Amino acid sequence: MVASAQSLLRSLGSAASSFLAYAQASCAGLPSTSTSTISTSEQASCWLGLKHAFNSQLDNSILSSVNPQQQQAVDLAEYDANASTGFMPGTIGARLPAHYDAWERALDLVNCGHESVLSLGEDTSADALSKRASSEAWRQSIRDMPVLSTDILSRNIQHQRRAHHVLAFLAHFYIHSLPPSEPPVIPAPIAVPLCITSAQLGVTPILTYADTVNWNIVARDPSKPLAPGNLRSLTSFTGTDDEDAFYQCCANVELYGTPALSNMVDYENLVYNELHAPSSSSTPFGFGRIKSEESLRTIAASVASIGAMVVDLTDLLRGCHGACSPRVFYDQIRPWFRGSSSGHTPWVYEGVSDTPSSSLHYLFASGEWTNLSGPSGGQSALMHAFDLFLDVDHAMERNADESSLRTPVEAREGNDRLFMQRMQKYIPGPHRAFLNHLSSNTHNVRNFAVSLSQSTSSTPAFTAAAQDVIKQYNNAVCALRRFRDAHLKIACVYVVAQAKKAAQLKEVEAQENAQEQSQAAKAKAAGCPVAAMLARLEAEGDADLLAATGRCPVSGVSLAPPIAPVIPVVRNLGCAGPALKEPIRGTGGSELVTLLRSGRDATTRAMIPLSSPSPSFVRAH
Asked: Cα–Cα distance between 446 and 440 in angstroms, integer?
């Protein structure tokens, strides 16, 4: 393993080689002079590079090869989480140190709703066009900034989170205010510190769910705890109540779901303690050692609590519908979220992705930091934790056979099986480490429930307790499926239906333009310039200039009657309605409806089939 680590570091370049010597000296307790040529930020970058490159091996091969008797109990604090706010930090730094005032001032100019100096580059409304000059002036001020060192930030995790939040928002403000014809280049004053900070935090250099929710929500009343009903967002693209409500809804889910993390840890630690308890019997290391009815009842209670929590989160998700207007979300908020995966041209991170000598260039060269997605609910560590704890197989890697007891579900065509796995790189490093722990645990609750379903114990009390564990597991999976049903319906209302409405309006506009052109062509063909002029004025809305007879007052050429505006009324389209030419994609980059349906199918597949389910289980479903 050490040799592999050395080989990996050497492959990362000269800065990594210096850091290797630094790390070796540090481990040996010796002074090192090799760090004189490598800055603090580069040291952190190299360390994160090693960690990132070795990530899958550490999470899978190494962890799976560790003797299970040597694995340790779980403590949320080790993963930058807690029992009060879960993956949400208890406190967030409101501003960066004075050294970074240029970043904060640039954000202040655009984080002010309608008073912002920016507009979407694709927006052609009068208000947006009036801000074209101020938008370019703001972007020029970004390009004129110096590239600031991030060494001060590396000493404080709150500063690092705030820096990523500020820089990622600035990057999206910059890119999406550009006219569509301009290349998407993030200037070095933003790109370089964003990439370094991203490497230090273990996330991608783009706006993530953590930036918009975890590191964006603070207590409205600072004297009270961070909790639902006492929340506000620090930064938004539109300054609308709708955008603030959207972020708060996501934060409410995170906060309400926090107790489930404690339930997961309780299960992990109970199983750990049971498996490591001294045993005089010859029972091999495994679930067979858990023979206590009390332990089974405790596990069933923990899983039941998780299922009940998911039910509450589903109700909460449904209740968010009225807080944010679907039209405002689709037209005004969502365009700012788009990542580089949404466009035809990759984003250039000046000074990093286009600079081979950069210590972080390899992350772009390897494809790890290319084609990045914008913020998505798929980046919520909490939702990943539910999936991994319940062993939901999104990648469809485990077969639905007798040994795995997976409920057969037909795979959907075009399903992005690796979406959830890909979304994990957008999750902060410590939280991802917790997810890695859950995924690497072979003694997960599903495997335990399957082992109980195959148990031949003759003790009636043990059998009843075992059946309750299986029932509560299936109930929790069913609750998670219903959560995904609710999410799918909301996505249909907020994205699919809005996209279809927009497509229909564009079609109507195209038809109107075609009619206007036809009128002008007829007038021109008739050889009457006055008729052509009147047709143009009529198309522009000057109806009073049209002769009462509907003919040109000079030549008598017939003019078509005024075109009545046709505004289609689209009701309850949902996921139905006319097909679009292009699939609707989420901000995560995948085909939205297929992705959400596939996630629901994968959840269903996790349920343990029962040959003779108990009456209570039947009633629950």
From this structure: 13
Position with higher pLDDT, 620 vs 76 = 76
d(CA 295, CA 271): 9
Rounded CA-CA distance 497/490 in Å is 10
According to the model, what pLDDT value does residue 572 have? 43
Q: Is the pLDDT reported for residue 259 higher than 90?
A: yes
Both 125 and 206 in a single domain?
yes
Encoded tokens for 591:
């085909």
Q: What is the DSSP string of 254-275?
A: HHHTHHHHHHHHHHHHHHHHHH
Both tokens of 435, joined, read 């997810």
Q: Are 347 and 210 contained in the same domain?
A: yes
Dmax over CA atoms of the chain, in Å, equals: 111
Both 19 and 158 in one domain: the answer is no
Phi, psi for residue 414 in degrees, rounded to 5: 80, 10
Tokens describing residue 597:
């349906």
Within this chain, do residues 57 and 134 fall inside the same structural domain, yes or no? Answer: no
Burial of 595 (0-12, 13-18, 19+ CB in 10 A): buried
Residues 348 and 208 in one domain: yes
**Do 30 and 103 fall within a single domain?**
no
Helix residue ranges, H only, 29-156? 40-53, 55-56, 63-65, 101-110, 126-129, 132-143
Contact 588/376 with Cβ under 8 angstroms? yes
- The answer to whether position 108 is within a domain reads yes
Q: Which residues contact 233 (CB under 8 A, 6 or more apart)?
A: 216, 217, 218, 243, 244, 247, 248
d(CA 169, CA 89): 19
| Of residues 563, 522, 523, 559, the one with CA closest to residue 540 | 563
307 within domain boundaries: no
Q: Which of 457, 569, 596, 555 is nearest to 505 (CA)?
A: 569
Report how many domains make up the chain: 3
Question: Mean of the pLDDT values across residues 498-505?
Answer: 74
What's the domain range around 519?
Answer: 511-592
Average model confidence (pLDDT) for the chain?
77
Domain boundary among 53, 70, 87: 70
* Residue the block writes with tokens 């035809």: 344
121 domain residue, yes or no: yes
Separation CA 403–CA 514 (nearest Å): 63
pTM of the model: 0.76
Q: Are 588 and 423 contacting, i.e. CB atoms less than 8 angstroms apart?
A: yes
Residues 147 and 6 both lie in one domain = no
118 located within any domain: yes
Distance from C-alpha of 260 to C-alpha of 420, rounded to nearest angstrom: 20
545 and 587 within one domain: yes
